[in-house]
């Protein structure tokens, strides 16, 4: 019902692309994970004490396997608008993007006013499990970015770029991670 109320009435449901959007902080206070090791040994993982980080804004459209991302030094409305611009540009002519996101302070409804082919829909508070991009962040941390040290901001940006590109090199990975039956629109 909320989908219908938040999209222009003249657009058929089969012309709406559902995008899931979020941002995550990656940095020197990194994730440590389990690793394979010879029985009886205890491998060491370095844990940095510095605090430099970057924000990865990511969006996925599971129906098409499409993705958009930017890396920024902060999480704010300015970078959010830039990210929405990427999603709007990636939406084909004659189609409409329904961007589902959480209620972060910089996720303001008026950000969508700049785009004719884009509508924002906020998830209920305290429900990150409804946003499949949370699985993307988990995948990036577990498969690419865990147990690493970063020399500084530029290194964090570089490694986040490599991690995102590793994720999206297989469209099927994005589709399998992020498809939710409840988000498939039919008319």
Automatic annotation (TrEMBL):
Q: Which GO terms describe its molecular function?
A: nucleic acid binding
Pfam families listed in its UniProt record: DDE_3
Going by the entry's taxonomy, the superkingdom of the source organism is recorded as Bacteria
Span of domain Tc1-like transposase DDE: 17-155
NCBIfam families named among the record's database cross-references: transpos_IS630
Q: PANTHER family this protein is in? A: TRANSPOSASE
The entry's protein name is ISSod10, transposase OrfB
| Source species | Shewanella baltica (strain OS155 / ATCC BAA-1091)
């Amino acid at each position: 019902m909320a989908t219908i109320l938040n999209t222009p009435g003249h657009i058929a449901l089969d012309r709406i692309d559902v995008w899931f959007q979020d941002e995550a902080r990656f940095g020197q206070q990194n994730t440590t994970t389990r690793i394979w090791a010879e029985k009886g040994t205890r491998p060491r993982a370095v844990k940095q004490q510095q605090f430099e980080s970057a924000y990865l804004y990511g969006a996925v459209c599971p129906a098409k396997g499409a993705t958009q991302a930017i890396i920024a030094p902060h999480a704010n409305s300015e970078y959010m608008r830039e990210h929405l611009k990427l999603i709007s540009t990636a939406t084909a002519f004659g189609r409409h993007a329904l961007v589902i996101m959480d209620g972060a302070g910089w996720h303001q409804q008026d950000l969508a006013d700049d785009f004719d082919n884009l509508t924002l829909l906020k998830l209920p508070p305290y429900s990150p499990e409804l946003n499949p991009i949370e699985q993307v962040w988990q995948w990036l941390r577990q498969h690419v970015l865990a147990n690493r040290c970063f020399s500084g901001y530029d290194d964090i940006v570089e490694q986040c770029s490599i991690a995102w590109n590793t994720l999206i090199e297989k469209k099927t990975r994005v589709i399998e991670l992020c498809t939710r039956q409840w988000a498939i629109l039919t008319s």
